[in-house]
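A note from the maintainers: we've had questions about how concatenated examples are separated. There is no special marker in the raw files; a new sequence line simply starts the next protein. For clarity in this README we add a label.
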Amino acid sequence: MTHRDDLQRFGAKRAVESADSDEVSKPLTAPQSPILFLAALAVWLLSAYPNALPAQESAAGSQPTLVIPLIDVERGRQLFVNKGCVICHSINGVGGQAAAALDAPPGQRSIDILDFVARMFLGASAMLDLQATELGYQIALQPQEIGDLAAFVYDSRTQADFSYAEVPVPLQDWILNEPYWEFEEWPDDLPEIYPEMQDGSKR
């Protein structure tokens, strides 16, 4: 059985368990009141993306607007395992050391999806090589899934109880425990992208 088959089987199992559970996943920092959540989101959008509000109609037509997915930290937590990210990356000491650890700074309260995407882009060459070598295929991520992963990567509170109990045994056997660029030919700028991995430690 291939890595892909086991990942798909595990993802389907988690989806069934999630559907059967009475617990409902909650967005990362959403207040209990929908009104408060919308107000907080509006303030954040205005401060972080001042040009994100829909442009008013003009003679030249309307301008593009920024689209942000409604992220879910628990979905991101499951995707980190189901998509195989845990094979190369670690969170809370759980996972591989072939790529950078993704622990959020203590007390992290904000989620920067654009920063997350930029970091993925900078490490794309090595990441694709690792996926081809270890999985035999490229991991496909939809925009919603990228947002959910970012929610987990930036949430130190949710990461605090992440453990190997959430990683199925087959995946634990695939976890890479050494930084690849210490003994493989990787791009020269890789240590600059992930300086914390030069000594195999977390950031």
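[label: protein 2]
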Amino acid sequence: MVSKMNKILGFIERVLPIRRIIVHSILMVDPHFKFYRTVKSKENLKIGKNSVVSYMAHLDLTASITIGEDCMITDGVRIYTHSHYLLNKRDFSLKKEGKAVKPNPIVIEDNVIIYSNAMIMPSVKRIHKGCMILSGAILTRSTTAPYQIWGGNPAKLIKIKEV
């Protein structure tokens, strides 16, 4: 199992310019998974053990993404970690003091499930433990407590799971 993991990590390092991905124990990555990054940072993705990143998931690594243990990110999920500076309503200048993008790191705690085609927007800072983001949801703000179910466009709190 360890040699297979080393082969996968070696392949990722050869194909992508990302040199340091912190991985614990088991990482299952679909062959169609895409890393997307716009800046040269090497430590922007941390994935906990037994987490699954599935088919055609799109992770923007402009800022850091931390995924906890036992998480499932299913097919077509998009996680964005940057937005653009807009100085005012009339001037569409994307640069503020030499910077074009505003990085927004995100933390996904343990046991989170993000179902297919959900979008996590850059305004989200944290998805709490045990939360579920339903299919097609567009999450525009952080979850407020553990064990919540969010869905819709924009995503709203639907239910709190019983523990």
